[in-house]
Amino acid sequence: MAHPPDCCHPCATCLLCFYSCHWVTAKKRKGLKTTKCDCTWFLFLLCVFLFMLVWLYFAIIILNDFHNFNEFIFKQRKLWLDWSLVLLIATAVLITYSTALLVLALCLQLCGQPLKLHWLHKTLLILSALVVAAAFTGLGIKWAEEWRSAQISLQATGPFLHIGFVGGMTLLAWPLASFIYRTHNTGLKVFLLLVYCTVMIALYLAPLGITSPCIMEENQLPPKPALIGHRGAPMLAPENTLMSLHKAVDCDVEVFETDVMVSADGVPFLMHDEELTRTTNVQAVFPERAALNSTAFNWTDLQQLDAGSWFLERRPFPTVQSLSAGDRYEVTKQRIPSLEQALEAAKQSNISIMFDLRPENHSDYQSFVNATLEVILQSGIPLQQVLWLPDGFREQVKQRAPGVQQVYGRKRLQNEKEPLLRVNLPYQDMSSEEIRQYRQGNISVNLYVVNEPWLFSVLWCSGVSSVTTNACQVLKEMKHPIWLLPSSTYLMIWIVVDCASLLTILWAFLLLK
């Protein structure tokens, strides 16, 4: 192959050196040609690169729910680590490596150099593809709901992904045109042109299938969803503590969401896990009883536990590093609060409290319900500020405390005897259309757990009533969805992008002819 006039020999030598992992002089390059096998490996490299891009997208999307994964690993292995950092670092390494190889290959093609990929690169590419394939398989088996999260994310990113793909495929026209004008294989030319044209036509027409609740007029935007603090404000204080409740109040949350258990001597207290090992120092205070269920401890024992220091030691969220000295000191003073203390704090702060009663499969669950109801009725908190989530013995609760607001963890049924007024569901379980229908039926919809601004924006545009969040300090500052486009503006952007792309592709093929 002849060298293009703008491609100097030293540059071509360096590019080929990195790609083929050995120094090839100008004389040796003259005898080298790109074979069918080399073309196959280039196509494999391109496929791996696209595979990595898809995984990068998924990795960013699942960050919203990654704290759940960290908790799951701790429950299984008793090892706490922010696995999101491991995920992001590994993903960054893989995507950087495949991108660098692809850029080298495209530059070599533009310079008219042979594509001789070294066996080491081939091996690493295969291993990279296998690692990502294993990650996708594990995601599908253990964390299948994240596929629905990815579908929802397309409502936030679809218009921008379309522009990105059109731009990327447009840039690909330059090396493609260079290759087509250099090769003498007519069949290969026709095949590549057909594939490229098919992909571009599909991309140009893709907006016809892109739907997003945020494509609307400004005056159609629903009110901002209310914020519910998931176990308080767990990014700013230890979860399910009075400090966490007060931090949530500072974030303007309307509801403090928590979890209630009942001690062996009948005192309801705040705790999410069935064991105390993750959020207290039970292993240091009661090492022989650390593996017992939280309900096996009496209230006197529970009050001896430190419910705050773990937050500084394990740093469940990156925000822990930015705590002030005063907040750090207050964290170390946290103890497991009783439900009575939490109700008093909620009453003084004028916020509602919503809770689950755990564990649901306990043999004494009815006595747990009775003890919890007794504390609520004696606390003096207005009953309309109490949101009751547990399904067990719900009718009994309605009779004893009719003022308590009933929240259901399911969708409404077709022949519902008593209409639902409030539902509490995972954000993956409701579509934008269902949210609109519930809103029209005056049913309050709360979705959990929503941490990322992109997800909050989609649900805001959909018209959700409230969201449960770990990141109340972030969502509090959002005065507007991340993006909102009138349909006419989106149509204009679509036409401009597609026309610019088409003209650029024509220019590339005419210029390199």
Using the coordinates shown, work out and report the CATH topology of the largest domain.
TIM Barrel
Number of helix segments? 21
Helix content: 40-55%
- Briefly, what CATH class of the largest domain? Alpha Beta
- How big a fraction of the residues is strand? 5-15%
CA-CA gap between termini: 16 Å
Tally of domains: 3
Number of strands: 9
Poorly predicted runs are: 1-6
Structural class: alpha/beta
Shape: elongated
Give me the Rg, rounded: 29 Å
- Topology order in helix (H) and strand (E) letters: HHHHHHHHHEHEEHHHHHEHEHEEHEHEHH
Mean pLDDT equals 92
CATH structural architecture of the largest domain:
Alpha-Beta Barrel
**Sheet of most strands:** 9 strands, mixed
**CATH homologous superfamily annotation of the largest domain:** Phosphatidylinositol (PI) phosphodiesterase
Notable characteristics:
single chain, alpha/beta, 9 strands
Any chance you could write out the topology, listing elements then pairs?
Layout: H1 9-20, H2 26-30, H3 36-61, H4 66-77, H5 83-110, H6 119-142, H7 145-171, H8 173-182, H9 186-205, E1 226-230, H10 242-250, E2 255-262, E3 268-270, H11 282-285, H12 299-302, H13 309-314, H14 325-332, H15 339-349, E4 352-357, H16 365-379, E5 386-388, H17 394-400, E6 405-406, E7 422-426, H18 432-440, E8 444-448, H19 453-462, E9 466-469, H20 472-475, H21 487-511
Parallel strand pairs: 1-2, 1-9, 2-4, 4-5, 5-6, 7-8, 8-9
Antiparallel strand pairs: 2-3
Helix pairs in contact: 1-5, 3-5, 3-6, 5-8, 7-9, 7-19, 7-21, 8-21, 10-15, 15-16
